[in-house]
């Protein structure tokens, strides 16, 4: 009986000591990390396009932190899903087709001759990438456009189109097979 | 006309993987000849059998995996695996042993890991270990080395023995193995080990037995032949010096230290270097690039580790020789070795593994 | 520092790890002195010929320019380009560039007049008495970029150098096989090079000047040693080993130092200039000649007269090859640059630029094409060849398997792309190609990360602004209420009560007016999110529609066929091509609308009612002035859109009739009014349309059937009286068609949603 008691006391004492040690270590070596929402938000492409069904990237980040699926972001595509999977430790699923498909990067373009200066697109743009005033022609700051296409719908005269980003020598990705080999002679 | 596009560089050395593999296989010829001389024609049949099995299993698995067969077979890697396994096996091992071993090496160890370049373990050695564990009797049945023609069986007889277990004259394999005088069935390493346990000192063992000049009849010649081949491979720049030097150095240093500590209980370093699979392992097995370490420093460590392990297994392990085990164990350490032996990159201040490289750009 | 200088003085050479010894084959092109090419028919001058951005154009098409005249200005890191000869600017357009991708870039096409009229040259007569800023300025305005390969602006190297520089290194190593342009330059122009070195010494004031030349160029070493006698210059013969001519490697060879990763050479006390650059600097300062030409090695077994040529920038490669006796049978590749780092050209019309040091046309036996790529056997030969002590096979592994961050961790960006690893690879893996792809991919990822950061900032700033606006508005409301209460308290009589009511109403109106623009978003949504709720809903709708569409695909197809039949009629009736095009556009739009409608499963009689009016606009399209046309188009579109919205709301028939009328009126008026009036009219139309639409949204739904008829009427109205055909006509017709189509689509969407709801 005493042996039994000693065993119990010994284990209790040990667990107390180790518990205290662990607790101490947790305090001592605490790693300051961003909350999950911030980390998820940093991975999302910040197009604010709402294709995920949430009104912006941050709401979707919050939803992911609360357990929503990670495959609802078409602008981010596979790369973003992979990163989210790595971060959250969930399985990387293919992009949910219900929210759209991964597309080439596009930016909005206003056909300026047709613009009537209604400012509707300016109000729709989540990142203030459209310049213009009432009854004046508007234009898109291509460098700031995230390609969310939210400005296309509100335009009363349909003068906004999404154009693929032009390939230049700066963003060329060494795709030798894509070079048209011209026939000479 | 149109012009072709290609990625730079447009100039390349003419040496190809297939040629490298072929050169290694070819370089094993002197050793094979020595084996033929001292252990009979068995090795010839084993080679034939192993190469045929290796190529056939590679073709089969490639077909199943839906890959192109001809171009992959042309890299000669399957053939080389067959050669290396065949020369490691006892010369009169039964045919099914060779077939099982080779098929295992190609299918399980190489192709199921993704084919050439993807296997973690040396296929020939993994198969050897598998056979050794599964069929210990057949795998340790080396018969004593004698001179050419003195084995009691001929060229055709060897085939009979391998395929049926009996020579054409009706002798069983066991009879052949027990030799003409019926005395010894053990390899020098084996013999040495058992004698030690019987209380002999190493000098007594060597004095009592008709050993060769270095490590036992035949074995020293076989090892010398592989040493010569290895030097040829080095000269041809097919292999680099780091791994062989590591293996032999590790073995030599370990043997020397314990020999100096207790000369009565251990064999001489020279005995260790020229017995068993030491030279074959150092130049032909451990230098398999796929499963070896890739950094210069890592290769020295990798080789040294193999040498040390071989010595430990020979002296303290349950098996007389330990090359196969040592290579496999070292293979397992490769990722770790590679990680910690990265060279200092130009423009970086000190030798730091990866973390340092994080976040750097252009 | 002192010790390094002393060691160098004592003749010590260091070594760099790795390196390879490819066959050099330089003697092919060094048997003759440098020749001069005749002028080609056209010179193609890309604005951007170096690392960085291109300058601003200074000339226009049709201008006559003189030799040496600046064609673009260099600002903010850009370098100017100059006319290599006198002639006329024939075009400024996109033209394939001297880049591995051959993607078109802005290029100036110059037609030489053969006169070679120089513009005014301004040589600096006593350069060694001038302050160094004057010389640097001259070098910058002469457009001198590094002629060794990378094309870094030379003036920036001089500008950024520290006061107490230890080494000035002149790079004459030229380690790439085949190339001999620097070799020949040193043999023939050693004196000028010595002057160039003097100028550089004057600018930089280094403790020591080194000229590094590979020991396989004894003539060049001798010539340089002779020319620099008496100057404080050490000509160093270095062992021939590729890539000893790489900037980082040559620094390591000559000084034992390393450029810190991501840094520039002056951070370890070194500034390096290429032989060609040094010569160009001498020409710019002493002769006043900007950078117009360079020595190019044309070599390879497929040319009959390999050698070095003085060639103007902009000379098409084809011209060079013709003069070097190109045997078209043999050459299957044209390589710009050397065999190790050069790139293949898709065709021979690529112009020569500042960084083009060699045109290599090898025969198939000489440099065989790479065979089939085999698996990596981790042989480690690449690691031994790498001059930067990287682990090429690990980089390959991560690059090929798209683990780009891992590749970055293995120091991918320290790779100098010299190609030594791929040269020795027995498995013929194009390693450098993998690295380049991974690098460009990573660069893009970084750029995107930066962009998304900025987008986030902008998004948050916007939200903040909207929040602020909302708060201000609320504050105003409160103020107004307070005012009213104060008024009530102050004045008790009836009269005053009425006045107060008026004032309150005024205040309300004011408040309403003041918050009009942002209200569009905030009031409707009730929160501060961007106004994409509607878009989300629209997407949801589209999704449902898509599902529906798939289910009824077969039926839709059949209907589409039906709908297409009238289009052929309208096509046949149209006579001139423009009309035909318009008709076709209209027909297409119609067909699409039909298809959509068909998909939403409607009755056939509705279809026919729609198809009728559409051909009208195309048949008698207007001859209006552009502005009017634009207005008309805008009105039409606005109207159509309003209709569409209306259709979505599914209203009563009498309401629709009233809409159709007013909206068609202003457009009919526009035919004779001035632009201002037109704009007003358009605005009125839009406002009306919007008002209508709002009203509809409020109204109850009754029937779907009747709304079809009026909807299609307004479109033809604005264009009814016109006859002749011009460009605008087409645009208008297209716009009309588009608007109609959009209306149809919406309607269809609404319908399908209705029906799907019913289904559910």
UniProtKB/TrEMBL annotation, chain A:
Q: What is its EC number?
A: 7.-.-.-
Main localization category: membrane
Print the keywords alphabetically.
Answer: 4Fe-4S, Cell inner membrane, Cell membrane, Electron transport, Iron, Iron-sulfur, Membrane, Metal-binding, Repeat, Translocase, Transport
Q: Which range is the signal sequence, renumbered to this chain?
A: none
Which residue numbers delimit the 4Fe-4S ferredoxin-type domain?
Answer: 106-135, 136-165
Q: How is the cofactor bound?
A: Binds 3 [4Fe-4S] clusters.
Q: Where in the cell is it found?
A: Cell inner membrane
Domain named 4Fe-4S: which ranges?
Answer: 32-90
Q: Using the UniProt record, name the top-level EC class of this enzyme in a single word.
A: translocase
| Entry-linked NCBIfam families | PRK05113.1, rnfB
* Similarity comment: Belongs to the 4Fe4S bacterial-type ferredoxin family. RnfB subfamily.
Task: Tell me the function of this protein.
Answer: Part of a membrane-bound complex that couples electron transfer with translocation of ions across the membrane.
Record note on quaternary structure = The complex is composed of six subunits: RnfA, RnfB, RnfC, RnfD, RnfE and RnfG.
Q: What is this protein called?
A: Ion-translocating oxidoreductase complex subunit B
The species this protein was found in: Corallincola platygyrae
Automatic annotation (TrEMBL), chain B:
Which parts of the sequence carry FMN phosphoryl threonine? 187
What EC number(s) has UniProt assigned to this enzyme? Answer: 7.-.-.-
One Pfam family it belongs to: NQR2_RnfD_RnfE
Signal peptide as annotated in the record:
none
For whether the record's keyword set contains Electron transport, the answer is: yes
The places in or outside the cell where this protein is found are: Cell inner membrane
Per the UniProt record, which residue ranges are transmembrane? 20-38, 44-62, 120-139, 213-234, 241-261, 267-286, 298-317
Which domain of life, per UniProt? Bacteria
Which keywords annotate this record? Cell inner membrane, Cell membrane, Electron transport, Flavoprotein, FMN, Membrane, Phosphoprotein, Translocase, Transmembrane, Transmembrane helix, Transport
What InterPro entries does its record include? NqrB/RnfD (IPR004338), RnfD_bac (IPR011303)
The membrane topology of this protein is: Multi-pass membrane protein
Q: What is its main location?
A: membrane
Supply the enzyme class, top level. Answer: translocase
Q: Which cofactor does it need?
A: FMN
Q: Quaternary structure?
A: The complex is composed of six subunits: RnfA, RnfB, RnfC, RnfD, RnfE and RnfG.
> Main role?
Part of a membrane-bound complex that couples electron transfer with translocation of ions across the membrane.
| NCBIfam families according to UniProt | PRK00816.1, rnfD
Q: Which family does it belong to?
A: Belongs to the NqrB/RnfD family.
This chain's protein is named Ion-translocating oxidoreductase complex subunit D
What organism is recorded for this protein? Answer: Corallincola platygyrae
> What is the phylogenetic placement of the source species in the record?
Bacteria, Pseudomonadati, Pseudomonadota, Gammaproteobacteria, Alteromonadales
UniProtKB/TrEMBL annotation, chain C:
Residue span, 4Fe-4S ferredoxin-type domain: 366-396, 406-435
Alphabetized SUPFAM superfamilies for the sequence: alpha-helical ferredoxin, Nqo1 FMN-binding domain-like
Report the Pfam families cross-referenced here.
Answer: Complex1_51K, Fer4_7, RnfC_N, SLBB
Write out the residues that bind [4Fe-4S] cluster 1. 376, 379, 382, 425
Needs which cofactor? [4Fe-4S] cluster
What topology in the membrane does the UniProt record assign? Peripheral membrane protein
Q: Where does [4Fe-4S] cluster 2 bind?
A: 386, 415, 418, 421
Q: Which UniProt keywords apply?
A: 4Fe-4S, Cell inner membrane, Cell membrane, Electron transport, Iron, Iron-sulfur, Membrane, Metal-binding, Repeat, Translocase, Transport
Specify residue ranges for compositional bias: Basic and acidic residues: 470-482, 538-562, 689-699
What InterPro entries does the annotation carry? 4Fe4S_Fe-S-bd (IPR017896), 4Fe4S_Fe_S_CS (IPR017900), Ion_transpt_RnfC/RsxC (IPR010208), Nuo51_FMN-bd (IPR011538), Nuo51_FMN-bd_sf (IPR037225), RnfC_N (IPR026902), Soluble_ligand-bd (IPR019554)
On the tree of life, the source organism's domain of life is: Bacteria
Q: What is its EC number?
A: 7.-.-.-
List where Low complexity composition bias occurs: 718-738
Where are the stretches annotated Disordered?
A: 470-500, 537-760
What is the similarity comment for this entry? Answer: Belongs to the 4Fe4S bacterial-type ferredoxin family. RnfC subfamily.
Q: What is this protein called?
A: Ion-translocating oxidoreductase complex subunit C
């Amino acid at each position: 009986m005493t042996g039994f008691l000693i065993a119990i006391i010994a284990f209790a004492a040990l667990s107390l000591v180790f518990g205290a040690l662990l607790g101490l270590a947790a305090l001592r070596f605490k790693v300051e990390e961003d909350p999950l929402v911030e980390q998820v938000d940093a991975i999302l492409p910040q197009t604010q396009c709402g294709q995920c069904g949430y009104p912006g990237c941050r709401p979707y980040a919050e939803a992911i932190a609360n357990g929503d699926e990670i495959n609802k972001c078409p602008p981010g595509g596979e790369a973003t899903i992979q990163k989210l999977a790595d971060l959250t430790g969930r399985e990387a699923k293919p992009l949910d087709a219900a929210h759209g498909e991964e597309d080439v990067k596009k930016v909005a373009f206003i056909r300026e001759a047709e613009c009537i200066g209604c400012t509707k697109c300016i109000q729709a743009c989540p990142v203030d990438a459209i310049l213009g005033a009432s009854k004046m022609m508007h234009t898109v700051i291509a460098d700031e456009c995230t390609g969310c296409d939210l400005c296309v719908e509100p335009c009363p005269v349909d003068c906004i189109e999404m154009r693929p980003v032009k390939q230049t020598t700066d963003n060329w990705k060494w795709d030798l097979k894509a070079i048209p080999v011209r026939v000479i002679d | 006309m149109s012009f072709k596009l290609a990625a730079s560089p447009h100039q390349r050395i003419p040496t190809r993987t297939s040629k490298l593999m072929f050169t290694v296989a070819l370089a094993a010829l002197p050793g094979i000849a020595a084996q033929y001389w001292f252990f009979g024609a068995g090795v010839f049949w084993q080679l034939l059998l192993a190469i045929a099995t290796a190529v056939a299993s590679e073709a089969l698995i490639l077909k199943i995996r839906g890959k192109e067969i001809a171009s992959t077979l042309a890299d000669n890697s399957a053939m080389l695996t067959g050669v290396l396994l065949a020369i490691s096996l006892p010369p009169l091992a039964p045919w099914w042993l060779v077939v099982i071993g080779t098929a295992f090496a190609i299918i399980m160890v190489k192709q199921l890991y993704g084919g050439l370049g993807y296997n973690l373990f040396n296929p020939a050695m993994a198969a050897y270990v598998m056979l050794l564990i599964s069929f210990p009797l057949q795998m340790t049945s080396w018969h004593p080395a004698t001179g050419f023609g003195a084995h009691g069986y001929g060229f055709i007889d060897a085939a009979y023995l391998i395929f049926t277990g009996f020579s054409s004259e009706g002798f069983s394999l066991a009879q052949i193995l027990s030799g003409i005088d019926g005395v010894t069935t053990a390899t020098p390493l084996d013999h040495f080990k058992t004698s030690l346990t019987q209380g002999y000192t190493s000098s007594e063992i060597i004095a009592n037995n008709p050993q060769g000049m270095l490590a036992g009849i035949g074995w020293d010649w076989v090892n010398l032949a592989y040493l010569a081949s290895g030097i040829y491979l080095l000269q041809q720049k097919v292999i680099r010096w780091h791994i062989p030097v590591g293996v032999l150095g590790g073995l030599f240093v370990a043997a020397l230290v314990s020999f100096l500590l207790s000369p009565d209980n251990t064999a001489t370093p020279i005995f260790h270097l020229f017995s068993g699979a030491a030279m074959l392992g150092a130049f032909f097995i451990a230098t398999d690039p796929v499963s070896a370490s890739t950094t210069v420093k890592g290769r020295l460590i990798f080789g040294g580790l193999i040498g040390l392990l071989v010595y430990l297994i020979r002296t303290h392990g349950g098996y007389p020789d330990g090359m196969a085990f040592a290579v496999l164990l070292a293979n397992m350490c490769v990722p770790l070795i590679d990680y910690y032996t990265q060279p200092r990159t130009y423009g970086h201040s000190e030798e730091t593994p990866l973390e340092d490289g994080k976040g750097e750009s252009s | 520092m002192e010790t390094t200088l002393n060691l160098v003085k004592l003749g010590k050479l260091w070594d760099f790890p790795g390196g390879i010894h490819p066959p050099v084959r330089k003697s092919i092109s060094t048997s003759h002195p440098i020749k001069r090419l005749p002028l080609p028919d056209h010179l193609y001058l890309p604005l951007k010929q170096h690392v960085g951005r291109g300058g601003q154009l200074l000339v226009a098409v049709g201008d006559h320019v003189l030799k040496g005249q600046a064609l673009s200005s260099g600002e903010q890191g850009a370098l100017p380009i100059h006319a290599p000869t006198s002639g006329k600017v024939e075009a400024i357009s996109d033209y394939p560039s001297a880049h591995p991708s051959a993607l078109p870039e802005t290029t100036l096409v110059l037609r030489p007049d053969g006169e070679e009229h120089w513009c005014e040259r301004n040589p600096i007569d006593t350069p060694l008495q001038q302050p160094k800023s004057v010389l640097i300025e001259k070098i910058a305005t002469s457009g001198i970029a590094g002629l060794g390969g990378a094309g870094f602006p030379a003036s920036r190297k001089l500008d950024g150098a520290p006061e107490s520089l230890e080494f000035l290194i002149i790079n004459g190593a030229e380690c790439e096989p085949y190339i001999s342009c620097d070799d020949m330059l040193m043999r023939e122009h050693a004196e000028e090079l010595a002057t160039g070195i003097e100028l550089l010494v004057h600018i930089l004031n280094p403790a020591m000047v080194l000229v590094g030349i590979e020991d396989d160029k004894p003539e060049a070493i001798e010539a340089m040693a002779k020319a620099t006698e008496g100057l404080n210059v050490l000509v160093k013969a270095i062992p021939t080993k590729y890539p000893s001519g790489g900037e980082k490697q040559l620094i390591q060879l000559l000084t034992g130092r390393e450029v810190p990763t991501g840094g520039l050479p002056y951070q370890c006390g070194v500034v390096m200039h290429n032989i060609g650059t040094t010569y160009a600097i001498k020409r710019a300062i002493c002769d006043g000649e900007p950078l117009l030409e360079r020595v190019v090695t044309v070599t390879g077994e497929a040319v009959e007269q390999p050698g070095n040529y003085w060639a103007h920038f902009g000379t098409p490669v084809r011209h060079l090859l013709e003069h070097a006796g190109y045997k078209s049978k043999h050459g299957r590749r044209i390589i710009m640059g050397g065999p190790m780092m050069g790139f293949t050209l898709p065709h021979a019309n690529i112009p020569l630029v500042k960084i083009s040091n060699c045109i290599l046309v090898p025969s198939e036996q000489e440099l065989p094409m790479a065979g089939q790529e085999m698996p990596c056997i981790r042989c480690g030969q690449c690691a031994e060849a790498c001059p930067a002590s990287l682990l090429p096979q690990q980089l390959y592994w991560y690059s090929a398997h798209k683990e780009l961050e891992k590749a970055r961790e293995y120091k991918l960006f320290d790779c100098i792309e010299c190609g030594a690893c791929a040269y020795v690879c027995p498995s013929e893996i194009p390693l450098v190609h993998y690295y380049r792809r991974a690098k460009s991919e990573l660069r893009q990822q970084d750029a995107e990360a930066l962009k998304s950061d900025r987008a986030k900032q902008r998004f948050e700033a916007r939200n903040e602004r909207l929040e602020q606006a909302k708060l201000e508005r609320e504050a105003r409301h409160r103020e107004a209420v307070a005012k009213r209460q104060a008024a009530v308290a102050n004045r008790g009589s009836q009269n005053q009560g009425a006045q107060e009511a008026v004032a309150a109403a005024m205040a309300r109106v004011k408040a309403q007016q003041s918050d009009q623009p942002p209200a569009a978003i905030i009031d409707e949504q009730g929160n501060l999110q961007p106004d994409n709720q509607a878009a989300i809903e629209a997407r949801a709708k589209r999704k449902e529609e898509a599902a529906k569409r798939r289910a009824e695909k077969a039926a839709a197809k059949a209907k589409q066929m039906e709908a297409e039949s009238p289009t052929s009629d309208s096509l046949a009736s149209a006579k001139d091509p423009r009309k035909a095009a318009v008709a076709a556009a209209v027909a297409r739009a119609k067909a699409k609308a039909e298809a959509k409608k068909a998909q939403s499963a409607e009755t056939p009689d509705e279809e026919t009612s729609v198809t009728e009016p559409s051909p009208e606009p195309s048949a008698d399209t207007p001859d209006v002035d552009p502005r009017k046309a634009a207005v008309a188009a805008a009105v039409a579109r606005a109207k159509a859109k309003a209709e569409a919205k209306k259709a979505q709301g599914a209203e009563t028939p009498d309401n629709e009739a009233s809409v159709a009328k007013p909206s068609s009126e202003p457009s009919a008026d526009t035919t004779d009014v001035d632009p201002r009036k037109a704009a007003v009219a358009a605005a009125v139309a839009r406002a009306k349309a919007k008002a209508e639409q709002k009203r509809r949204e409020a109204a109850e739904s009754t029937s779907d059937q009747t709304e079809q008829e009026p909807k299609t009427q307004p479109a033809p109205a604005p264009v009814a009286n016109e006859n002749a055909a011009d460009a605008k006509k087409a645009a208008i017709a297209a716009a009309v068609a588009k608007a109609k189509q959009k209306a149809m689509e919406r309607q269809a969407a609404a319908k399908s949603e209705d029906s799907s709801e019913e289904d559910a």
